[in-house]
Structure formats: structure tokens, C-alpha cells
């Protein structure tokens, strides 16, 4: 892992991600959880500007239609967005990895049947499933929420993780099945290694780098689904809804997370473009940061695994070694013929 920190791609991505994540907690600790509100700007006792205010030195990202500083809202909502995305990917991998290894080893005969049921899910947008499952949880009812923000985030993380577990499990199972038929795995099976030992000692170490890359891809996919749900007014932590028939406000985010900021302000794209563009740019930066970390990690581990040279120790004769090698080849040939039959 030390070589990972020598990769500039990984370091740059990590710095961007840490800036938003750590900066969010520090910003809330220093400035509080309520963004600064500036509805009017006065000069010589006259109102010269009203919200939404454009970007300036006082408000680098401008303000929204209610005068709240966009920079403060971005920093306050960063932790909810990033933690939720990483949590969804982590829960997804935690469930999918053991299922995938089981598909590739224990359930080999049923693997094609399982894939036949899972493959159609690739053509269905995950946003549709997420919207149908999360609407009862995130849309505020008339009597108000009965759960806290973090409880709704946990429920959302679990549900969004379960949606794509079959697809991720199928990918891992196919890769594990390919490795399961390698010669060194056949040799281990011939020598009596159990499938559990093969998974823990051979398959998981060989797939560790690919699993890390897959985790990063799941984080990116989750961030994209968050933006889609934001356009559908389902925000991380819940959507605050006004049921006033006369002067009701549009749906808005409770936790200032980026999906809510993007979705609730998208209608202002023509007149006040900084409102939807600021959270969209932040989404893009985090996605690029995760992609850079994946690229840096891939470059660090590629070509790193080398077979160490062993010293030649004459414990047995050369004839005995050749005889053992011949016996092992014969056993492997018999095992392959039995599998073909």
C-alpha cells in the first residue's frame, strides 16, 4: 500500500475527497449548522440587490432564492452525500462478495441459470427501482416524519445497496468461476483443499485489487443515482414537503445534501444558473476524485506481484521430483476428464 501514495492520481483524488468530507465536519463545528442568510444588499440605505445573489467575494458561490449562502450549504451537505454514497457501495460489496464467491464455486452448475435471471436487470435503470422503494421513506407525509435524518439515511443506504446486489454478485461470480478453473486451483483441489480454503487462500487474494476497483465504481454509480433521485425530488435524508394549498413552498432538502440542492434548483437553470451548477460541479469533482483514486491504485498494483526466487535446496533426488511432477500431471488430467464428462 505504500506505493499507492506515490501515485499522483491517487493522492489528488484522496485530497479532493478528504477536503469535502473533513471540511464538512470542520465547517459545521466552526460556523454551525445554519447557513448565513443575506436576502438584501443595501447601499446608502437603498436596496441594490435581492436574493438570489450572484457569486461575489462575500458569497463565492452566490445565494439561493431565500438568501442562504450556497458555499455554506455545499459544505454542510458534503458529509451526507459522500458518506451515503460510500455506505451504499460498502454494504453492497459486503453482501455481494460472499454471494459472488458462492456462485463461482459452490453453485457452478446453477451459475448459468442464476445469470439468466440477473442479466435482464442490466437493462432496467436502477433509478426506477430506487424511486419506487424510497418514496415511502423519503417523501414527508402530512403529519411529518416519524424518523430522524440519520435513520432515513441508513434505510436509504440499505435499500439502495440491495437493489444492485444481484448484478454485482453475478460479476464477482463470473470472475471467481474463471479463476476456479486455473491450473493452480485444480492442483489445490487435487491435494484436498476445500472450497472455503480455496476462496480465502486463492480467490480472494487474487481478486482483491479488482474488488477495490469495483467498490470505487459502485461509489460513482451511487452518486449518479443520487442526482437522478434529486431531479425526482427524493433527497438524501428526506424531502421536506409543504402541504399549504395557497402558499406552499416547493419540495426542498432537509440536510443540504447535494442531490437535494441540485434537484430543487434545477428549474432555475436558465435565470440563476449558479444554483444547479454549483452542486453539479461538486458532484463531478467527487466522481473525478474517485476515478483518479481507482486509476492510481490500478497503476500501483499493476506488475507488482512477482514470484520470488527460491533457493535450490537438495532435500530429495531429481528422480523423485520428476516422478512427483509426473504423478501430479496425471491426476490433473484425470480430474479434467471427469469434469468434461
Backbone structural class: mainly alpha
Detail the poorly predicted runs.
Answer: 303-316
Strands of the largest sheet, in order across it?
1-2
Rg calculated over all Cα atoms:
27 Å
Q: What proportion strand?
A: under 5%
The first-level CATH class is given as Mainly Alpha
Based on Cα principal axes, name the global outline. Answer: elongated
Number of helical segments with 4 or more residues: 11
**Distance from first to last alpha carbon:** 44 Å
The percent of residues in helical segments reads: 55-70%
CATH architecture title: Orthogonal Bundle
Query: Describe the biggest sheet?
Result: 2 strands, antiparallel
* Overall tally of structural domains: 1
Quantity of strands, as a count: 4
State the order of secondary-structure elements, H for helix, E for strand. HEEHHHHHHHEEHHH
Instruction: Return the CATH topology.
Output: MetI-like fold
Mean pLDDT: 83
Tell me what you see in this structure.
There is one protein chain. The chain is mainly alpha-helical. It has one domain: MetI-like fold (Orthogonal Bundle). Helices cover 63% and strands 4% of the residues. It has 11 helices and 4 strands; from the N terminus they run αββαααααααββααα. The strands form 2 sheets. It has a two-stranded antiparallel ribbon with strand order 1-2. It has a two-stranded antiparallel ribbon with strand order 3-4. Helix 2 (70-105) runs parallel beside helix 5, helix 2 (70-105) packs antiparallel against helix 8 and helix 3 (111-118) runs antiparallel to helix 6. The chain is elongated, with a radius of gyration of 27 Å. The two termini are 44 Å apart. This is ABC transporter permease. It is a multi-pass membrane protein. The chain crosses the membrane at residues 9-31, 80-108, 120-138, 153-172, 211-236, 274-294. Residues 78-294 form the ABC transmembrane type-1 domain.
